[in-house]
Amino acid sequence: MPVVNVKQRQDLRQSAFIDQCLTIEISDSEVKPALSAQAKAVWHVLHTRSRQEKAISKALVAAGIEYYLPLTNRGTYRGRRKFIVAEPLFPSYLFMCGTVEDTYFAIATKRVANVIRVNDQLRFVSELHQIKCALENKAQLSPYKYIEIGKRARVTGGPFIGLEGLVEDHVRPDRLVLQVAALGRATSLEIDADLLEKVD
Length: 200
Hints:
27% of the residues lie in helices and 34% in strands. By secondary structure, the chain is of the alpha+beta class.
């Protein structure tokens, strides 16, 4: 039986939770504010103090509060040796799904600077899903400016098939931009422009 360490359990829990959020049906006639099984639980953006993302995530796990912290592997040197470390994709930010009381708990840890409200919950979950899918398929995501105007595109082939984002045709037609509107931040991956199709 394969051994699963604590970090892998947390990653699997996050992945399953995001997928669960996306499969919840919301009818046209009824808008449900909660996107998890928890009553009154909604997504919030936690703006953490410097380099406190992993520490607050451990506190949330201990309290049974759901969250998502996208991590990306980056190389760093210590002397002549190169190490690969998992760092937050969006430094100083963590995404938490919980109640108002849960936000009070997060603030009480003294590791959170402030809490950002997410008004469009469905869009937010969809954006997180695109990022999660990209990371699960080993995408090399790079920081990118948040763009106000861009054409929506979908990947039609390869390991990122089905992934959706924005493309700036006249700037970088070979770069798919994944954004988090509530955060005002973006990341991107390089991809063959021939594998992109426009989405209406």
